[in-house]
Amino acid sequence: MTIASTEERRAALASLTADVVVCRRCPRLVAWRELVAEEKVARFRDETYWGRPVPGFGDPDARILIVALAPAAHGGNRTGRVFTGDASGDFLFAAMHAVGLANQPTSRRIDDGLALRGAYIAAPVRCAPPANKPTPDERVNCQPYLVRELAILSQVRVLVALGAFAWESCFRVISALAGDDVRPRPRFGHGVVAAAGPYSVAGCYHPSQQNTFTGKLTQPMLIDVLRRAQELASQPST
After folding, report:
1. pTM of the prediction?
2. How many helices (H) does the chain have, and how many strands (E)?
3. Is residue 85 assigned to a domain?
């Protein structure tokens, strides 16, 4: 059933967040996220790490859902907010700010005043994984949260997949929610757009330092994908 009002969506998202942050379904991820939070790194040794699953974040009236991979060990796992406190987040939010999807270009702390406009960000895996590589079972364990999130975000028309893992996750979630399993699966590529049920899915390279430092992903490239997502999101529903 479609959630009709902003307040209903906000309340449902708050309920989802409460469930996400206490999740302990994946023993390997629980052990890793808590070890990282205890051992820390030198530059953050005086900070208290979040060390729990990281919920989604953004506008309950979003028409664009940005799907990532998983929290960074010393980013979201430290700050408690997705793409917050690391270079990947700075790269992403600079582009989102440039197209009007964020009110500021950086995301350093959970209380820094960042607000999203027309966009929401979530990860298919909510805990920081070792080597940034969740297992297939961990993705399956976490998928119900993203399914529930997309159902709550009833205004979403476009999913932006940051990387191949997110691309596959988008189609899995849409299939689970809308019953439209696209086969054969469209191949991931930067700038590729595919239809799936009532949604469009747009591919984008992940703003990891591996991609941004090498020039595989530039700000203009990311901005182009976000602008295309805005165009698609603004089209009337059929």
Report:
1. 0.95
2. 8, 6
3. yes
